[in-house]
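Q: How would the structure tokens look for this protein?
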Amino acid sequence: MQIKVPSPAKLNLFLHITGRRSDGYHEIQTIFQLIDLYDWLTFTPTHTSHISIDGVDIQPQDNLIYKAAQCLKDSAKNHHGVHIQLEKNIPMGAGLGGGSSNAATTLIALNTLWNCGKSTQQLADIAATLGADIPLFIHGQNAWAEGIGERITPINLPQKQFIVLKPDCFISTQLLFSQKTLTRDAKPSKFCAYQQQPSIFGNCFEPLAKKLYPEVNEALLYLNQFGEAKLTGTGACVFVEVKSNMNTHDILSHSPCKSYMVNSLNISPVHDIFRD
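A: Here is the predicted structure in token form.
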């Protein structure tokens, strides 16, 4: 049985660091918004014990897809191997969560194809060991997130469209976190406060990204002509909400870098394919 599965991207509608834990990890607050920009993964179970991946640029063993598959291998009831073909559309290192989404899609798909019998929460617990953003994609709903990003509360968000730009640079998350001017003590807030005044909720990495990466600054300046542009994650992608008075065709066609028009999602399409 071969199956092709979408793997959606996300935006951070805001991102604050509220403190730092004794283990060095940062406490955050953010809103994850799923969008209809997809990678696609095709899974072909095999009767061998081998896990192979096509479509990745790094060694498979260093890829989150491979690591996710390995986490379920011992639970497989009817197969122990798989060939995975990745069709990459979500830009890498862009703050859109493509790698995390790929890992979550892999866990969800192989849980069914290998008949592992894991619940959604069990998959989310496994996902948290691989990366803080991955449980979001396991649950497959927009969420208010806290902790290091793994404590998520599903939320309802209105249907929207966004223009997303991908500046031609690759941001070093480590470099941004190492900056002394990074705001690490934002006052914790609540989702209801965001709903009342979303404009005051920004991204703590945005001032640094603009300063260190001229391409990001250029993209933000461009989009700010049309609305309130924001950085997603640690970048490099920036986005703006589409309003009715915007000439989206002109905005996209005159963009200084690669651009996307995306729609918000309420539920990940992966959950229309695989259900508990």
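DSSP finds ten helices and ten strands in the chain.

Strands lie at 3-20, 26-46, 51-54, 81-87, 143-146, 151-154, 161-166, 230-231, 238-241, 258-263.

Upvote if useful.
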